[in-house]
Structure formats: C-alpha cells, structure tokens
Amino acid sequence: MKILDVLADMAKTGQLGSVFSGADWSDVTAALGEPWDIGTMSRNRKWPRLFAYGDLELSVCRCSKVTLICVQTWREVVELPPSVAEGTETFPAGLTYADVVSALDKAGCSWEPYPSLTFGDQCSLVAIPTGANFTFEIPEGEEPVLNVMGLGGGHDCRTAPGSDKDPDRSS
C-alpha cells in the first residue's frame, strides 16, 4: 500500500484503520498498543493530551475520545503503525500537491481549496466527505509539498449544561 492510498482513504472515510475521530481511547490502545505520550496541548491544562505512533499523532480529550488525527508528512520518511497501513510501516514522504490531488481524484474523494489555511508560503485543501485537511509548504520556486494531513471531529465535552469550565484547568 502506498502512503497516498492511505491518506486518500482516510480523507474519504474519516478512518485510519481502527482510528477515527470519536474513537474510544481504550479501543485505540488495544488495537495499536501504547503510544508515546507527547504531553498536553496547552500549558494551563492537563487535557487534551497528544499521543503519537510514529508520525500518526492523536489528540485525546479528558473523556477518553480521540478528537484530532494528524499524519505528519514533513519528514523524509513517514512512519505509521503496521495495523493501520496494511502491514507497511514506513513510506517515502515528499508528496506534492499534484500527487495528493491525483490520489484523491482516483479514490473518488471530492475536494476543494481551503482558503482559510492558504497564505504566505503554504496552501491547503479540504476533502469534502470528511473535512480532512491537507496543508502544503511551498518551497521557493518549487511545487507545494505536503506537510501534514489532519482530521478533526468537532468533539466538545463542554456541551453539557453546567460544564462550561474545564475541571483540569490549573490556577
């Protein structure tokens, strides 16, 4: 399996193997094993926490649900857990805008430019079925190269009445 196939399938389905936005963290760790605990996403809060399986990064809410999935592609090699990439662990990086668009079109995944994240030396596109975002770095005089692919789910634990404050917020 090629990395472009993995990313296009993720953009179309909203899943990467057993990982999807809203997945229960215990199910993810049962399927993938223990991750690297990168830490919190804010200095003032214990949650959400960021975990990684190679270049697959997952943000997990205090309610133990996956809220954000990112595949970092800016390195020379992209490393993913074998169980989410049909046994393949590493992939060459350096994916161009044209490569990604071609893979999305081949997979039947509609997309459009994403102006909100297009500025300066970066551009972005979004997959229509899932809202997956592909953000590209534009090296001077070269074609845009994929930096990161992300998929969120709009999860918000604070939607319950009376729960507008984060109980884990430090003073």
Provide structural commentary.
It is a single chain. With 171 residues, this protein is of the alpha+beta class. It has one domain (3-154). It has helices spanning 3-13, 25-32, 97-106, and strands at 15-16, 19-20, 36-40, 49-53, 56-60, 66-72, 77-79, 90-92, 111-113, 122-127, 133-137, 145-152. The strands form three sheets. Strands 3-4-5-6-12-11-10-9 form an eight-stranded antiparallel β-sheet. The chain has a two-stranded antiparallel sheet with strand order 1-2. Helix 1 (3-13) packs across helix 3. Mean pLDDT is 85; it is low at 159-171.
Cα gyration radius (Å): 17 Å
Q: Structural class, please?
A: alpha+beta
Kindly report the spatial arrangement of strands forming the biggest sheet.
3-4-5-6-12-11-10-9
Based on Cα principal axes, name the global outline. Answer: globular
Low-confidence stretches are 159-171
Terminus-to-terminus distance = 48 Å
Summarize model confidence as the mean pLDDT: 85
Task: Indicate the percent of residues in helices.
Answer: 10-25%
Strand content: 25-35%
Task: Give a brief rundown of this model.
It contains 3 helices and 12 strands.
How is the secondary structure organized here?
Layout: H1 3-13, E1 15-16, E2 19-20, H2 25-32, E3 36-40, E4 49-53, E5 56-60, E6 66-72, E7 77-79, E8 90-92, H3 97-106, E9 111-113, E10 122-127, E11 133-137, E12 145-152
Antiparallel strand pairs: 1-2, 3-4, 4-5, 5-6, 6-12, 7-8, 9-10, 10-11, 11-12
Helix pairs in contact: 1-3
